[in-house]
């Protein structure tokens, strides 16, 4: 590729809208352009990086027996209604109707579709296990699309789904993917950590997130210097609560809120005060935390700390604020304040929200939980222990001091068990002749987010420093003067030889000042720059500069190709 023809429009100024480095540099270096909030065009350089990440992903998926397929992006509502997620997914789902007024969505993920697909064609244990994956655009109408490719509304994901006969099989598939993910991010040249995670809205239990360590990361993680323990903050937070769950305590008289609160709540709930009392949570006697409860019978299988909730003080809590937490206004009932205005109660209707969005909270940020089951998950004596884990707190596993870091979630692996196969009747006949639901897992990698994360970890004041395995090109050949025929001829020769030997090179044949070309080369982040100036002609020495180290090396015409490799 000749740079004179390359569509990589570089910018001198940093666009004001870009807050994080990867967004700034991808705009400046001509990798992406915005079409709408969270929706981008990938220009040729970005596309090459994405294809390289995808190639690594494909190799590692294949190595574990993964088979690639392609499912539709447009998905019918019915299968989402069968699993209950049509309402749970809320406003994050892009929805559309066809001309017959039928409901569809743009796939935010594909559990429903693939489970339905497998249901139709897999009948026997002999056809299992199955590891099926695709790499395609996903659509999520994120409440805050930002940071360029890090949180897009259209983004590229690799999603693999595993189908096994039993939990032992699932463990094996899960471990394979865990291993593949470790290999993928290592091969991409990233510094990352796998942390224990909550399984969130997708459900099930047993999950890890792969976090690229970067200060700009939206996720907090904790890890132990003394043992292998590592978790995201939400998961780490649950430790004291899970322990309490085992010795759960029934609600007592003392925990019952005052009559004014009950009256207000019953009005919101539309149920009698008696029923409200039964379904209402309790507060600590310190008045620090008030739990909210949900009405109806609930069978809770997970609780989750909603991090970064922000201001949910009584005065400020409103429908929008709650909706931003629970992801949907549907089923939301309302915040209720205690008489003294110290505490708030937030109630979400679990029967409508399918148990995923029942919220409880405190009158402070970062202390809100969903899917709570008060008698089980909390008791007054330990509620006050809930706080964000901090640097130097004891490791929940070994007691050594905890360390904290910020991370970018580039991938996540989940054990789904039979959540979807049960809901969608995806069964097989086992070798004992019995019909059983398939045991599933799902495994996602944000391909476009991985590209952004790579930049967050690899840059300097002059621009991007691509890790070689995912660099758009390996080398740029820069003739100092394009008017100098000897220089141009040598540059052409080097350019040809590099490409012939498997080093992907571009030739900066633009009639520009050398300073401009060098600046662009640094900004775009080619790992190697070959400068062809007067010295190359007079001394027969080829100057090779390494972007990452700034080191300059000189090679003879017979050695430079090997030197670069
Ligand atoms: P997040 O917590 O950042 O919202 P998620 O947990 O909702 O991500 P998953 O459902 O686990 O995302 O999807 C698998 C992977 O897809 C994520 O690990 C991430 O790398 C990527 N991903 C998710 N949402 C986005 C997005 N809006 N833009 C870019 N990549 C994304
Ligand atoms: Mg998300
Ligand atoms: Mg996440
Ligand atoms: Mg995730």
From TrEMBL:
Name the predominant localization: cytoplasm
InterPro entries tied to this protein = aa-tRNA-synt_IIb, aa-tRNA-synth_II, aa-tRNA-synth_II/BPL/LPL, Anticodon-bd, Anticodon-bd_dom_sf, Pro-tRNA-ligase_IIa, Pro-tRNA-synth_IIa_bac-type, Pro-tRNA-Synthase_IIa_type1
Signal peptide interval: none
Q: Where in the cell is it found?
A: Cytoplasm
According to the UniProt entry, its GO molecular function terms are: proline-tRNA ligase activity
Instruction: Please give the record's comment on domains.
Output: Consists of three domains: the N-terminal catalytic domain, the editing domain and the C-terminal anticodon-binding domain.
State the similarity comment: Belongs to the class-II aminoacyl-tRNA synthetase family. ProS type 1 subfamily.
Q: What does this protein do?
A: Catalyzes the attachment of proline to tRNA(Pro) in a two-step reaction: proline is first activated by ATP to form Pro-AMP and then transferred to the acceptor end of tRNA(Pro). As ProRS can inadvertently accommodate and process non-cognate amino acids such as alanine and cysteine, to avoid such errors it has two additional distinct editing activities against alanine. One activity is designated as 'pretransfer' editing and involves the tRNA(Pro)-independent hydrolysis of activated Ala-AMP.
Provide the assembly information: Homodimer.
What is this protein identified as? Proline--tRNA ligase
Native species: Sporomusa sphaeroides DSM 2875
């Amino acid at each position: 590729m000749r740079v004179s023809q390359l569509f990589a429009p570089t910018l001198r100024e940093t666009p004001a809208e870009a807050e994080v480095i990867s967004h700034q540099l991808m705009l400046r270096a001509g990798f992406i352009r915005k079409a709408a909030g969270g929706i981008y065009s990938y220009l040729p350089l970005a596309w090459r990086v994405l294809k390289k990440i995808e190639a690594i992903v494909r190799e590692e998926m294949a190595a574990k027996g993964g088979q690639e397929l392609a499912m539709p992006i447009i998905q019918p509502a019915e299968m989402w209604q069968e699993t209950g997620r049509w309402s749970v997914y809320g406003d994050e789902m892009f929805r559309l109707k066809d001309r017959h007024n039928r409901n569809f969505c743009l796939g935010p993920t594909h559990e429903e579709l693939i489970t339905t697909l497998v249901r139709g064609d897999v009948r026997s244990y002999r056809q299992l296990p199955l590891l099926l994956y695709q790499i395609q655009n996903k659509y999520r109408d994120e409440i805050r699309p930002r940071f360029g490719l890090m949180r897009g509304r259209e983004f590229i994901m690799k999603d693999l789904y595993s189908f096994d006969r039993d939990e032992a099989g699932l463990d094996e598939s899960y471990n394979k993917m865990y291993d593949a993910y470790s290999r993928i991010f290592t091969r991409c040249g990233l510094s990352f950590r796998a942390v224990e995670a909550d399984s969130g809205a997708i459900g099930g239990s047993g999950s890890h997130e792969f976090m690229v360590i970067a200060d700009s990361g939206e996720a907090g993680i904790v890890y132990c210097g003394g043992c292998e323990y590592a978790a995201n903050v939400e998961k780490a937070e649950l430790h004291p609560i899970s322990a309490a769950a085992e010795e759960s305590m029934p609600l007592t008289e003392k925990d019952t809120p005052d009559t004014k609160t009950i009256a207000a709540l019953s009005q919101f709930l539309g149920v009698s005060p008696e029923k409200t009392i039964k379904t209402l949570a309790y507060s600590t006697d310190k008045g620090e935390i008030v739990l909210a409860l949900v009405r109806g019978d609930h069978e809770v299988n997970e609780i989750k700390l909603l991090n970064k909730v922000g201001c949910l003080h009584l005065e400020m809590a409103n429908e929008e604020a709650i909706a931003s937490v629970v992801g949907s206004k549907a089923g939301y009932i309302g915040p209720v304040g205690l008489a003294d205005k110290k505490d708030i109660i937030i109630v979400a209707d679990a029967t409508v929200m399918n148990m995923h969005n029942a919220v409880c909270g405190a009158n402070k940020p970062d202390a809100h939980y969903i899917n709570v089951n008060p008698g089980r998950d909390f008791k007054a004596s330990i509620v006050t222990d809930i706080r964000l884990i901090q640097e130097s707190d004891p490791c929940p596993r070994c007691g050594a001091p905890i360390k904290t870091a910020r991370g970018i979630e580039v991938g996540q692996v989940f054990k789904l068990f039979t959540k979807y196969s049960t809901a969608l009747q995806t069964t097989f006949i086992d070798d004992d002749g019995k019909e059983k639901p398939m045991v599933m897992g799902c495994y996602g990698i944000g391909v476009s987010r991985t590209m952004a994360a790579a930049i967050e970890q690899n840059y300097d004041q002059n621009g991007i420093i691509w890790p070689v395995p995912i660099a758009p090109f390996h080398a740029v050949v820069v003739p100092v003067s394009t008017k100098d025929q000897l220089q141009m001829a040598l540059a052409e020769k080097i350019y040809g030889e590099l490409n012939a030997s498997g080093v992907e090179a571009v030739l900066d044949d633009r009639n520009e000042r050398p300073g401009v070309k060098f600046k662009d080369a640094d900004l775009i982040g080619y790992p190697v720059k070959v400068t062809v100036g007067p010295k190359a002609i007079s001394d027969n020495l080829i100057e090779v500069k390494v972007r990452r180290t700034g080191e300059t090396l000189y090679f003879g015409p017979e050695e430079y190709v090997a030197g670069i490799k």
